């Protein structure tokens, strides 16, 4: 090692030593200035990088939104989604790079400046002080008079002590200088080398990521030329069609034949006639409103907007007649008369009026011809005004994100290290497995496909309450006991941090795809497990806190003129009307002026008093019967009811089908049994593992039916968010809404009504609307948080 300042030279305190000290001090001062500047530049670079990542993330979100908007074009949607995922990975890599820069440059060099350079400055201050004292002692010793012995002795003693102290201080100072000069080299090189290796890793990860993406990019590049050619051809075809239609319209204008311009006929869909007509309302003002009318499937219906549910004017044309109306002021009017009401309409011309009258007459004749043998169906009251609700689009929720989710998940035993390689401080998770992962293992899991593993960031993504509770119910320790049960027996080596990617990937595929290390249970072990779970379910069923309390069934009150089945019954205070098939239609509490104008007398009869129906029949008590054979599916079935997530995960690892059907118990599924068990987290676990939210049992009841019948408000909210069909009817023609009304469960009725209203609003906003009403989002979010964090508040019925 090269010594900057010689130790023996410092004792002489020669001019050469002083010059060397002065040179070293100037060099250290300049070094401190340069290091401070480098640290500030590093901080600026990190801040700029974070701002870049934030802007880049917004850009990626824009790509995702564009992909969602392009759902009708599979090529664009899949390509943009893949590109967005890759760019998101690059953002994650950038984040890791900036974290490493902060650790290697900012933190490490700041420590060097604050610790080592501070020690040097303190040593320099002591050296300067003792040097001055030595100089003073020398001058005083030289000035001591010869004839004053006591002053000579005093000056000599002070000089001796000062020289001794100087030697001690100067040796420490020289040692500090030499150590600093040696350490500066290692600290600076160590910091920069760590920073450069972080860049190397970043570019390697980016290269690997885009190498996987390159085949898709080449494939799309090859398709672009053909897409350009196809677009040009489609443009020519559309221009030709435009010219043809324009010429046809001109000929029709010349011949004054406007019937073909005003309506279309679609016999394949049963549409005999459609077009705009003015309709006279039956209110006191007799206002006229323009509506789109359709004669379809022997019914006359109209819509205000295309996305509106059709309003049925005449449910069966066989019971109607049509006639001209010449006794009113307006021209081109005709009237469709049924046994209960009449509807006055106006066409735009005489030819159109004749066409509509002829279409109605032909439809009446066709209906009698096609259904002459089915006269008993004349009293059919099925309504076409109820549209299907698809609540698949999840609302955006202000859920846990970042450190809150991270702290909760890492608090679970075994979660502080990656489940597969042991890397500390994992920041990713597989939500359907319930484990935490490092960034490398998360990329491998993502490549397996969502049917094996669904990867989500613990710091960047939002976490719904039920999903966070699912993660806290499982964890790395529980899952590894299942998926690595035979690893040591088979002599398989578990990867360690820093192992090559291909070795880690091979291990993860063997663990989760091939399930090579899962211990298969014997028939007797499986039977014992199933019986134990069924007994556990019975204990849970006996717990009074397990099931929410039910309100006593209301006494049926039928309006005079209604039949025993409850037809034509309407609840005035709840805003819920019974349709003829037993389903419920939602009525707006404050109808708009337009709906009042369109109201028919027979459609809104006066209601003297509210009416309710008897509650639905309760679910059958779960009884364990000895099955014909034991299987992992049966284990999943009873584990779902017993609310045992580890046993459910074990059953799936043993090959259980998540939508397994128990043919011996009314074709119930594990998801329906999870509803019976009353656990929101159990339902979420099954849904994350691809359970069908609309699969029905032998009674035609899906999970939403069962959750409604049991009064499980949190589960109803979860199923609606996951796309449950609330319009599905069981074999008794009961929908979840009709069941909730009969049980007088206001919370569930509110959720179902809001879901339907939100879907109607989304449809009214256009085909590309995704979000729906903000009030709907907020209310569903409140129910979600209440179900997960304070379920007692929902036990009100």
Automatic annotation (TrEMBL):
Membrane topology label: Peripheral membrane protein
UniProt cross-references to Gene3D superfamilies, sorted A to Z: Ankyrin repeat-containing domain, Arf GTPase activating protein, Arfaptin homology (AH) domain/BAR domain, Pleckstrin-homology domain (PH domain)/Phosphotyrosine-binding domain (PTB)
Region (Disordered): 371-400, 523-615
GO molecular function: GTPase activator activity; zinc ion binding
Annotated Pro residues bias: 603-615
Claim: ATP-binding is one of the keywords in the record: no
Entry GO CC: endosome membrane; plasma membrane
Keywords: ANK repeat, Cell membrane, Coiled coil, Endosome, GTPase activation, Membrane, Metal-binding, Repeat, Zinc, Zinc-finger
PH domain: residues covered: 270-365
Pfam hit, one: BAR_3
Listed name of the protein: Arf-GAP with coiled-coil, ANK repeat and PH domain-containing protein
Organism: Haplochromis burtoni
